[in-house]
Amino acid sequence: MEKIKSFVSGMDTTSWILVGGIFLMIVVIIGYSVYSKKHHVSSADAALQRKRKQKYWNNMYQIMSDSRIFKGHIEKLTKRLKQMSVYRLEEIRVGAAKFTAKLALYVVIAFIAGCILFDNPVSIGLFVAAAYVIYQSQVEKSIQASVLRVYRELKAGIASVRLEYRKSRDVLVSLENATYGNRVAGIFSDIKSVVSSTNGQQALENYYEKVPFKEVQTFAMICYNINDTGDEFTGDTSTFDQSLLVMNSDINQKIEQYDYEAMRYGKVEWLSMVGILMTIVLRYLLSYMMPSVAILYNSIAGVLIQNGVIAYSIYAYWTVAHAHIRAFMDTDDRPDIVKWFMKKNWFLKIAKRTEPTGKKRRLTRADLIKAFSKRTTLDFHAQRLVYAIIVWCVLIIAVITAPFIQKKYLWNYTKSFDITGSIDYKDEDGNEIISKEDVLRMDKAYYNTRAAGEWEDQSDETVTTEINDFLLSYMPKLTTMELEDQRNRLEAKYQNIRNAGFHWYYILIAYGAAAIAYMVPKRGLKKRIELAKEEEEEEFLQLQVVMMVLASMNFDTRETLGHLVQIADIHKSMLARCYYGYASDPVAELDRVQRHSQSENFKQFIAKLKETVEDLSIQEAFADLEADRSHIMNERSAYIRDSIDRKRAAMGQLALRPMLLAIYGMLVFPLMYTGITQMSSMTEKVGEL
């Protein structure tokens, strides 16, 4: 009971506000849950409420789109939702507005919590960044869950179309009679419009622009071409039937990949956030149990360790979370901050003057081509410079503000500097001997005296007597042991405050961190190359399905290239160049496409296409397409599983590192450093005796 009273009496105003806010939040949540259970709403009222909410969020979307703060985020989120090809415009706007509003709320809450938990601006900024990254990753996972639902419904819809086609032998009738889920209803409705359109080719091209979802594009192309040119039947099956079976096998593989990733990863990314939690808990726990350790937490070393653990936790969370989030290739992969810097003449001049030349430039250009990036080597170098500048500025702020924070903490610190020592300002009955304000005045007077050059030789008995008299003038009832403890405390406080300042070598820390940040885009480019390779393989599989249809239509090579250009995305520019330059030198143009591709399967695909220029027909060259495809799919399935297993093992280790960093940085290092410092001090005193 006494401990509880002591704890309550020691709580300051901020702590009471925090406790009151949490209590109020709990009451509101409980009250709302009780109200929602007892309060029943009619269907008409519910529909009216939904309509009002949609109108509200549509207005919010417009306001956010016009706002300079939210505009960039709203545009990116809208584009991301459009890529799914299954949401109506109103649904996209409502979803983007809700996600952005929640993000803003999370950021504000994180900022308030950061101001309460931390006392330096960099830590507060990183805490806000952590909330931003967490919510963004959760939004991506939510979108991925919707993508998986789309795949499941699309698979069921395509299977239904195939069964209806076997009964009716008519594509349009099959689309009319097929059953499908609500989420893909819009897709099937649009494809019916394309197939029944009087200007079908133009409608199909417009649909490609509207719907970037690759499987949906392929399905639309198959339906339109079979309906337009007719089907080819072989026994009990047909080209349309086989194409839809192959499409469903592709979708099955994707669903299996999503399910396997979900099973292997689970919620492992949250393990990364334990680093931030342990940083906060260990700091407050050790500061309460061993106040002298808190001095290190508020020093430059403590601030850098704390910020380092938080920053690495954010990096680990983002990396682990995005390891199993299927990314979409963005055509413009320059970050917004880089675009902003590139508009500044002073920065553009620096970027041009410092851009690497010769072999380094050629290698970078080759990597950018492999990554299907539209960035130039100057854009890439500018991104590296921007990252380095931002990190340098953040570290400079940290190392400049840290000494001020440390001095402020030391000036208000009245406890022992000894790891095992304890100084109490209350008597045996619990009555206060001296107030904290008087102790601080005493400390200030001692500091001023020492700063004036007096009491230098602490071993001199005369100096010891003068300091004892000084102490007794503030606390007359001190014993001999207490006088010695206070002398040691005052001298340690004076030395710590005097040494707490900015040193020139702190700048080297900022330059070291900037050098690491300069290398980060290189790592990002390697990941984009891996993503590009995966996207290339995905597109190759879609082009194979298209080729199965085109082979049955007796197109020549140039006409086939024209259809491939329409459905392609990753290879679009290469195939378009080949298509328009085909008349001059078809073999040379196809060779160029083959050279620029990373995928061996796609290279073999183009090699077969070259055979159709003079020697073979499309149908003859790709007669073994189905057998080859089955083999490729089996190989790809095994590769995907192996890749997920290897990546999961690496991500598991990465997720653990922030916790280990927090233990070593916030627990082991402070205890070791404080213990070694105290032992060295005791050794010096023994030596003096």
Provide an overview of this structure:
This protein has 689 residues and is mainly alpha-helical. Helix content is 78%, strand content 1%. It has 28 helices and two strands. Strands 1-2 form a two-stranded antiparallel sheet. A hairpin with a 2-residue loop joins strand 1 and strand 2. Helix 13 crosses helix 28. It is elongated, with a radius of gyration of 34 Å. It starts with a helix and ends with a helix. The relative contact order is 0.08.
Biggest sheet details? 2 strands, antiparallel
What ranges have pLDDT less than 50 throughout 5 or more consecutive residues? 1-5
- Tell me the span between the first and last alpha carbons: 46 Å
**Outline, from the CA principal axes?**
elongated
In helices, the fraction of residues equals: over 70%
Strand content: under 5%
Number of helices, counting only DSSP H or I runs of 4 residues or more:
28
Radius of gyration: 34 Å
Lateral arrangement of strands in the main beta sheet: 1-2
Structural class per helix/strand content? mainly alpha
Topology:
Layout: H1 2-9, H2 13-38, H3 43-66, H4 71-82, H5 89-117, H6 121-168, H7 171-177, H8 185-196, H9 200-210, H10 214-229, E1 233-234, E2 237-238, H11 239-265, H12 274-289, H13 291-297, H14 300-323, H15 336-342, H16 345-354, H17 359-370, H18 377-411, H19 436-451, H20 461-474, H21 480-499, H22 506-551, H23 557-567, H24 572-580, H25 586-596, H26 600-611, H27 618-621, H28 625-688
Antiparallel strand pairs: 1-2
